[in-house]
Amino acid sequence: MMVLQFPADRRTGDIKRCAEALQRLHGEQANRFWRSEMVDFAASLRGQDVPEEEISRQARLFMHAVQLELQQLSVRAEASI
User: Which DSSP symbol is given to 49?
Assistant: First the structure.
């Protein structure tokens, strides 16, 4: 297993940025945003010579972290109503 300096699920700034953007975007705009983020994400790791299997694993970790952040944003929004 490869050790990355900044594992995807620990990139809190990127996670929050993506979750906040996805909370504002809907439908095809949200899909385009997410696809673009994931293309850039994978390209960045490929540029570091990360194997494809590890890129897939890191993408899953990142996606899960963004989903958790979206859930937390939703809970905070409901609590402030």
Answer: T
pTM of the entire structure? 0.87
Q: Looking at residue 55, what is its pLDDT? A: 96
Question: Residue 71 is encoded by which pair of tokens?
Answer: 């859930």
Query: In whole angstroms, what is the distance from residue 9 CA to residue 64 CA?
Result: 8
Please state, as a whole number, how many other Cβ atoms lie within 10 Å of the Cβ of residue 20.
13
CA distances to 10, 26, 48, 66 from 17, rounded to whole Å, are 13, 15, 23, 9
Return the SS3 of 3: coil
Exposed/middle/buried for residue 18 (C-beta within 10 Å: 0-12, 13-18, 19+): buried
Q: Which pLDDT score, from 0 to 100, does residue 7 have?
A: 86
SS3 31: helix
C-alpha 50 chain-centroid distance: 17
